[in-house]
Amino acid sequence: MNFQWDILSNGGLVQEMAHIANGRDPGNCVSLLRVNSANSSQSNMLILQESCTDATGSYVIYAPVDIIAMNVVLSSGDPDYVALLPSGFAILPDGPGHNGGGILEIGSGGSLLTVAFQILVDSVTPAKLSLGSVATVNSLIKCTVERIRAAVMCNNA
């Protein structure tokens, strides 16, 4: 699997700790990922991820989870113990394309990418978000879109 699009991995080694298939395609699954990063603040973090792809499109939904909380759940504990703020993206075909002679070409119309994030911010009213917070979110979205594009282009080469 390719995790280079994910800002949470931050260049670290991503290890799949659990893989639960969801259908015939091995890429359609729920995974529990561990990021082995030099950043010590991420050492207690896992990523719970679901991915799915078929002819209508692809999506990846993921959420960072605390390793201690996940261990409680994996030991038959209460799943409400794990706080989830899922984020993700979907890639949908943008319709068929046409070649120079007006002939319809399936699969040449490009793609539509939708990205969604849930992020904890200070408890202030939305009208009072700092410019720094807005800039950080804009940077996160831009970086993620660029990484997804690079990963997709790499897979098509």
Automatic annotation (TrEMBL):
Pfam families (alphabetical): PDF2_C
Recorded superkingdom: Eukaryota
Ranges where the HD-Zip IV C-terminal domain occurs: 4-154
SUPFAM superfamilies according to UniProt: Bet v1-like (SSF55961)
Name of this chain's protein: HD-Zip IV C-terminal domain-containing protein
